[in-house]
Amino acid sequence: MSGRRALGAAPRALHPLAWWAWAVGLAVTALKTTDPLLLALIAAVVVFVVASRRTAAPWARSFSFFFRLGLFVIAIRVAIEVAFGQRGLPGQVLFTLPRVPLPGWAAGVSIGGAVTANALLAAFVVGLQLAVALVCFGAANTLASPYRLLRSLPAVLYEAGVAVTVALAFAPELVIAVANVREARRLRGRPVRGASGLRGMAVPVLEGALDRSLQLAASMDARGYGRRAGVSRAHRRMASGLITSGLLVVVVGLYGVLDAGSLGGLGLPVLALGMGLCSASLLLGGRRTVRTRYRPDPWRRPEWLVAASGVAAVAGVSVAEALGVVGVQYATTPLAVPGLPALPLVGILLALLPAVASPRPRPTVAPDPGRAGGGAARPDRGAQPVAVGSGDGR
Amino acid sequence: MIEWKDVSFTFAGASAPVLRHVDLRIEEGELCLVVGRTGSGKSTLLKSINGLVPYFTGGTLAGDVVVDGRSTRDHPPRQLTDVVGMVGQNPAASFVTDTVEDELAYAMENLGVAPDVMRRRVEDTLDLLGLHELRSRPLTTLSGGQQQRVAIGAVLTASPRVLVLDEPTSALDPAAAEEVLASLARLVHDLGLTVVVAEHRLERVLPFADRLVVVPGAGRPLLSGPPGELMAEAPVAPPIVELGRLAGWRPLPLSVRDARRMAGPLRARLSATGSPPAGRAAPAGGPAVSVRQLSLSYGPVRALHEIDLTVGRGAVLALMGRNGSGKSTLLGQVVGVRKPDRGRVELCGSDPVGLAPRRLIRLAGLVPQDAGLLLYSETVAKECAAVDHDCGLEPGTTSAVLDQVLPDVPRHRHPRDLSEGQRLAVALAVVLAPAPPVVLLDEPTRGLDYPSKERLVAVVRRLADSGHAVVVATHDVELVARVADRAVVLADGEVVADGPARDVVCHSPVFAPQVAKVLAPDQWLTVDEVRAALEGAAP
Prior knowledge:
A: 394 residues; mainly alpha; B: 539 residues; six-stranded mixed β-sheet; globular
């Protein structure tokens, strides 16, 4: 039912880690530059790739949510700047809000006052940075199902990961549950709005949530989740000790990499050490479980290309920064038109590569109409690709 | 294969055990059908097979359950995965992954099955259950019957020796239920699996059951034996068995086919006594609900399309159709859940959309599919008191209504701890207390046994006789046969059939009740009608 080899690569799903590498690369790039044009370009690249490679699967619908969340973040950031921004900096005054006098103990905070265009622009850029990073994560979520990402994780992380995906899958159910309970309250002639409405709804919604979690836990256990090979206790402790310390070191290292001054250039080595500790723990811990993997996603040339394109974006902006290229950081005082430095620009444009280099997702299969899942579920039009089909047999 | 040795089980905090001194053996390769009234302990018995009882339910289990030589005393459910496959009522609640193939592989991944073996078993299972077309579909896009088949496949891939199914078809429409039970029959005949199944629509499983286990409830001893013998005595019996008992057929027929071959003389006798009753006279009351040209869609999905419907006071209307055909949506529209895209609904002369909740409950009462949604209080007594208070009724009114619907519901229990039938009774009482002229029931027989259904039928009839308009959305053809004056069949949000219930159900191979199938072409719907006709003719 698949496989049109004639048209280049057969349709298949790209390895989820490749998508995540690409998306994380772009997100890091976004966090490293404050140039609004570059940031907008990153967003455009992400949207283009998502538009050309997304599927009709349920999880692929989260992209617009992340996009709106991004817009919301920008709005909030600007609104906060207007209300509580730092005053007294030089700049072009746009308008002046009435000042609210605050008692002496709140010396560091000010409300109202003159709002400058420079301050607003700076706030907008910071918001934009965050928004673009969010859109990148939304893209990763859309292009690779969270569960498939989980499957490619090492065994020791798998069990914690299942808990996370189950929690993620639970959010949409909660929305349905709230709607149902609201409706039921109306049928009982009870208020559905206001504080009393909220209190009356919380209990049934949470009860439903607990019931469902228990059912799922029973189902997972009955299907062998958490079966262990016999491994000594000392062994287990060592594995978990290693991963905890490893993750801590990774955090410190990341901090060093992102904030160049703090560790005096030791960021990368520390990060590497942390990674090493984590890997050792994974190797140790992997022996603990008896899990095998069904049809692991292959890692081939498209995966390398996609991951590399993400790295290229980071490289572009990092090299430009190291060379001291003007325009990577956007100065809002004095007001100026943002530049478009060449090196980061090339890096970001390279990140468009997945739009052509990744295999097309498997064609959408329409479900038979009118056979929606039982209860509240409505039919979702279409299906999504999984690593099935003619192209990727081992 | 499965052996219960002097097993007793008591839930934490309960005063009496649910199961008491159960001694039971199920042999290899048997299909064992477990029947019993709601709340009798069927599910407990089933869940004890792989240790979900007591590992996941709490409570105290005495005695020993041994499956394929392994005792659940020292094997928790996860260590029995390769022996027992457990499928629950609600498949969607058991899914861990997001696509069909991954779901099938999940148990094998946990067991550490070698990749090539896994690949082969997934393919085999896809073929066995007819799922190959769906292999890469997200689980949430499947229909109820497909989801249930995936849930069965997901435990089968671990190649268990025993398959346990707890009411696998209770949430499904007749066609989807047929689909699941056909797969089940195939597993029993082709693979020789030992299957233990609890099923309310036992008429569908009876024909190929090897053993019947009757759980009488309240800790009384279980009965176990060949279905034909036990059925002659069983307190719960499908219409076909009741018809067989009435006609004195021996051996008792368990399938429509068997019954039809014996039914020749009965058909002749019935033809001689005259035609089936014409059904109730059209009710005299004016319209209580009128729906005009109603259309509604959820995004691109069309839920309802140009529906025209009038329900008069004193009428019982059955809404039928497969899962997702718009039945629940239509009921929701009658109580004004959403503003329709086009058309309008009139509920006793007023527009239900935006009606204040307090006014709404005096005009219409809707019992949703999950009746428990209507109940919030910690005990049944408090629930009843809350309704009296909310509706300004005399204290005790709701409690009295509850006693009419179902006597002896324990008042001190939490609604969630009641059996399905009791919970429905409380929800019904809550809705009926303010005496709304319109009563809407969404899938009320889900999870109900025959006696509870019987009581529901009586309640609905009484409501109609006292001038209420009743609309029942249901898959249950036997219920329709017994209560409805009129039946409307929906498909893809459109009305495809509308007429007297007798004509509508008898003309459909999917919706025809068992008695109608046995006695076709005459349109007899229920055993009671046949009994009345025979008694009328006897003197």
